[in-house]
Specification:
alpha/beta, Rossmann fold, 7-stranded parallel beta sheet
C-alpha cells in the first residue's frame, strides 16, 4: 500500500469526530491537512475547534491549515480552496464530511432546519466537489470521499425522517453521478458509511447519549477505512458505496474489537447504523 506522505487533504467539518480522526490518520504519514470548519470558539456541547484540531494533527506528524469555512457559502469555499493551493501547492484528496442531522418527522421539521440540512449536506458536498475538481485533475491519485450511506430507495429509510434521508442521499447521489462524470480525469468518487453507530457528538446529542455511545465504535474505524480508500488507485476504485468494516476486511483486517467503545460487548450488542 502507498501512503499519504506529502499529500494534501481538504476535509470539511474536521474540527472533531470522524473528520478529525481521518485527518489524524493521514497526518501520521506526514500529510498536509486543511481543516475547513466553522468552530473557532469552544462550544459547550461540541468539543474541539479548528485550532485544537490543528494542534492534534501537527502532534500526529502532519501539517495543518485551519480555515473558518461554512460550506453553505460559495465565496468561503472558493477562498478556502485558494488558500489550500497557496499554502500547499496543490490538492490531492477531498473529504466531504460536514453534515447536519435532524431526525424530526415531516410534521415536526421546520423549513429552517430542512434548509440547513440540505444546504450543508447536499449543496455543501456538491459545492466543495465542484470547486476542488479543477485542482484534483492535476493530482497524481485524486480521491473524493463523501461520508454518506449506500443509496437504497426502500421506504423504511425515509418514513421516519424524510428530510434528513433526502439530505444524506443527496451526498450519495453526488458519488453516483460524479464518479462517472470525472472518470476520464482519473478522479475517484466514493462514499463511506459505518456499519454501526459511531461515538461522535451527533450520537451523544441526538441519538441516545451515553447508552448509545457505549454500544458504538470509535471514529478510528472510519479513519482507517478512509485511509485504505485514499491509497487505492483512483482510476480503478471509484463509484463505490463502501461500508467501513467491509473495507477493512478486504485488507485482511477482521479483528475489530479495538474499535469498540466498550470492548467487552459482543458484536451483536453494537447498535447498527440506521441506514444499514
Amino acid at each position: 500500500m502507498e501512503n499519504l506522505s506529502g499529500k494534501t487533504l481538504f476535509i470539511s467539518g474536521a474540527s472533531r469526530g470522524i473528520g478529525l480522526a481521518i485527518a489524524k490518520r493521514a497526518a501520521i504519514d506526514g500529510a498536509n491537512i486543511v481543516i475547513a470548519a466553522k468552530t473557532k470558539e469552544p462550544h459547550p456541547r461540541l468539543p474541539g475547534t479548528i485550532y485544537t484540531a490543528a494542534e492534534e494533527i501537527e502532534s500526529s506528524g502532519g501539517k495543518a491549515l485551519p480555515l473558518i469555512v461554512d460550506v453553505r457559502f460559495e465565496d468561503q469555499v472558493e477562498a478556502a480552496i485558494e488558500a489550500t493551493i497557496s499554502k500547499f501547492g496543490g490538492l490531492d484528496i477531498l473529504i466531504n464530511n460536514a453534515s447536519a442531522i435532524n431526525l424530526s418527522d415531516t410534521d415536526s421539521l421546520s423549513m429552517k432546519n430542512y434548509d440547513l440540512m440540505h444546504s450543508i449536506n447536499t449543496r455543501g458536498t456538491f459545492l466543495c466537489s465542484k470547486k476542488a475538481v479543477p485542482y484534483l485533475k492535476k493530482a497524481e491519485n485524486p480521491h473524493v470521499i463523501n461520508l454518506s450511506p449506500p443509496l437504497n430507495m426502500e421506504t423504511r429509510w425515509f418514513q421516519n425522517h424524510v428530510g434528513y434521508t433526502m439530505a444524506k442521499f443527496g451526498m450519495s447521489m453526488c458519488v453516483l453521478g460524479m464518479h462517472s462524470e470525472y472518470k476520464r480525469f482519473g478522479i475517484a468518487f466514493n462514499a463511506l458509511w459505518p456499519r454501526t453507530a459511531i461515538a461522535t457528538a451527533a450520537v451523544a446529542n441526538h441519538l441516545g447519549g451515553e447508552v448509545m455511545m457505549a454500544k458504538s465504535r470509535t471514529p478510528e474505524i472510519m479513519a482507517d477505512a478512509a485511509y485504505i480508500i485514499m491509497n487505492r488507485d483512483s482510476k480503478k476504485f471509484t463509484g463505490n458505496f463502501c461500508i467501513d468494516d467491509e473495507i477493512l476486511n478486504s485488507e485482511g483486517i477482521t479483528d475489530l474489537v479495538k474499535y469498540q467503545v466498550d470492548q467487552k460487548l459482543d458484536i451483536s450488542d453494537l447498535v447498527p447504523d440506521f441506514f444499514i
